[in-house]
Amino acid sequence: MATLVKALELPAGTVESEVQAGPVSGPGPRWFVVQVKPRREAQVLRRLALGAVSTFLPFIEVARRRGPARRRGLEPLFPGYLFVRMFPVGEAPAAWSRLRWTPGIVRILGIGETPVPVPEEFIEAIQERTKELGFVRLPSPLMSGMRVRLRSGPFQDLEAVFDRPLSRAGRVRVLLKLLGQPRPVEVDEDCLEPA
Fold first, then answer.
1. What pLDDT is recorded for position 70?
2. Euclidean distance between CA atoms 91 and 156, whole angstroms
C-alpha cells in the first residue's frame, strides 16, 4: 500500500493514518473497500451495478511481454478489491446485507464486523489520476539526457543517452555512440535500465 501511495503522489501516510484514526465523519454515503474473488472484479462490478450500488474500479496500464511481442493492457489498480459508495451500516442495514451476499464478494474490509470507510481524499486522488485517460499511467523513470544501458537486443550491454519517448506504445529514442558519433536508435523502453 505504501508503494501505491508513493506512485499516486499522495501525502505519505494518508491511507494508513486516516484509516487507523477511525471512521470518516460527515453525513451521507461513504466509500468502502470490498474484497472479491481473484480476477472477479468486473463480474462483481456488473452485479453491483444491477443493484444500483455506486462502485469504483480503477485500472492501471501495464506492459506484458509474450515472446518478442510487447503488449500494453489494463489491470485493476488493486487486484482483488473494488470500492463501493454506501451509507454506513446503521443507516442502511438491508443494503449491506445484500452487498455481503453478492456472489463473488469475499468480505468487506473493516474492523471486526464493522466496515471502515476510506478517506474521501484517497478516492479523489485516484479519480484525479484516472480522469484524463480513464486509467492510471505511471510516469517513466527515464528523463532526457539520462545515461541508460540496453538490457537486450542487438545493442545489449551498451550504454546510451536517453533522448525522448516516441509513442504511447513504449518506443523511445536513445543516442548510441556508433563510429564516434551519437546516433539515434529506437528501442522498447522495457529494454532500458539506468546506467
1. 67
2. 62
Neighbour-count burial for 70-96, b at 16+ CB within 10 Å, e otherwise = beeeeebbbeebbbbbbebbeeeeebb
What one-letter code names the amino acid at 177? K
* Structure-block grid coordinates of residue 163: 533522448
Q: Can you give the C-alpha Rg of the chain in angstroms? A: 22
181 DSSP β-pair partners = 178
Residue 50 has pLDDT above 50, yes or no: yes
Residue 139 is classified by DSSP as P
Q: Which residues contact 26 (CB under 8 A, 6 or more apart)?
A: none
* Distance in angstroms (rounded) separating the CA atoms of residues 77 and 135: 9
52 Cβ contact partners less than 8 Å away, ≥ 6 residues apart: none
Identify which of 93, 89, 70, 87 has the alpha carbon closest to the alpha carbon of residue 31. Answer: 87
Higher per-residue pLDDT: 137 or 168: 137
Q: Identify any residues that bridge with 72 across adjacent strands, giving them in sequence order.
A: 63
| 60 neighbors 102 (Cβ within 8 angstroms) | no
Cβ neighbours around 30 below 10 Å, total: 21
Flag whether pLDDT at 179 surpasses 70: yes
Q: Render pLDDT for 106-153 as a digit per residue (tens, 0 to 9).
A: 999 999 889 999 999 999 999 999 998 888 887 777 788 889 988 888
Helix count and strand count (H, E) for the chain: 5, 13
Cα separation, 162 vs 151, in Å, equals 14
